[in-house]
Design goal:
It is built from eleven helices and ten strands. With 293 residues, the protein is an alpha/beta fold. The chain has two domains: 29-140 and 259-282, Rossmann fold (3-Layer(aba) Sandwich), CATH 3.40.50.2300; 145-255, 3-Layer(aba) Sandwich (Rossmann fold). The strands form two sheets. A five-stranded parallel beta sheet has the order 2-1-3-4-5, with helices on both faces. β9 (240-242), α10 and β10 (254-255) form a beta-alpha-beta unit.
Length: 293
């Protein structure tokens, strides 16, 4: 007749089994992140982000899950989509516009937010010390970028006198562009578009302004319709410059700004740090150092 195992041996065996089960559960728990886009599913830079994640050991659907929300160019839909992502209790949310940053900050003060938007002015304490659950990468170098685009535009097309700035009706970007225009003798006049349907009337609007150049601003509607704008500019034989290389990829003439693909790739490093325990408040915001014409 076999002797029963000592009680101490049984206890050790049970503890080992529990430890193995707990470790297995931790290994199978996949991090979950979210993306909030102002545009549609056709995002030209997402593959750069995925490549950045793969370089760090993350493969979508294998050891990390990604939730996507698209506003389809409707800025009014952003707050509701932000609330949807926050309700999922994700590990981190990535934002692609200042409006999305604001909506997320109004909805959560605990879930880390990684921004890939333009300016973060007014949303963080400072670039070095964000001071909240928002960090990430700025998509411009602050004041002067739109003025620089006007100067480059004038250098390429010396006869330009009036530039129509397509986007919103006002704001700091318009002030920036106007200041740059004064330096080189160019008038910058705003042309606001609220939705895709208004692009059809742009030809008449540009003729009224007697514009002989077009500056494409950071309006979500403009960015969502870069191909249509490029086609219109070609039809009107109107030179145009944008802040995003995507405009050139869609058939446009010129672009001067940051490499958004590089920003998406760099955003993966922020996600990795946060998933490994770093807090957004301790992660300085990066400003771009390289600009491409």
């Amino acid at each position: 007749m076999k002797k029963a195992a000592p009680l101490s041996t049984l206890v050790v065996a049970v503890l080992l089994a529990v430890g193995v089960m707990a470790q297995a559960q931790q290994q199978t728990k996949q991090p979950r992140i979210g993306f909030l886009f102002i545009g549609s599913k056709d995002q030209p830079h997402m593959e750069k982000f995925r490549q950045g994640m793969r370089d760090l050991g993350y493969v979508e659907g294998k050891n990390i899950l990604i939730e996507y929300r698209y506003a389809e160019g409707n800025a009014d839909a952003v707050p509701e989509l932000a609330a949807e992502l926050v309700a999922l209790n994700l590990d981190v949310i990535l934002s692609t516009t200042p409006a999305a940053n604001r909506a997320l900050l109004q909805t959560t003060s605990t879930i880390p937010i990684v921004s890939m938007a333009g300016s973060l002015t007014g949303l963080v304490k400072s670039l070095a010390q964000p001071g909240s659950n928002l960090t990430g990468l700025a998509a411009n170098a602050g004041a002067g970028m739109y003025g620089k685009r006007v100067e480059i535009f004038k250098e390429a097309f010396p006869r330009i006198r009036v530039v129509a700035m397509l986007g919103s009706a006002g704001g700091t970007n318009l002030d920036d562009a106007s200041a740059g225009g004064k330096v080189v003798g160019v008038q910058v006049r705003p042309v606001a578009i609220k939705n895709t349907n208004e692009i059809g009337r742009l030809g008449d609007e540009l003729r009224k302004l007697r514009a002989n150049g077009l500056l494409i601003g950071a309006s979500p509607v403009a960015i969502l319709n870069l191909r249509k704008i490029a086609e219109l500019a070609a039809k009107l034989r109107l030179p145009a410059i944008s802040e995003t290389p995507q405009y050139v990829e869609e058939g446009g003439l010129m672009a001067y700004g940051v490499n958004f693909g590089d920003i998406y790739r760099r955003a993966a490093t922020y996600v990795d740090k946060i998933l490994k325990g770093r807090k957004p408040v301790d992660l300085p915001i990066e400003q771009p150092m390289k600009f491409e014409l």
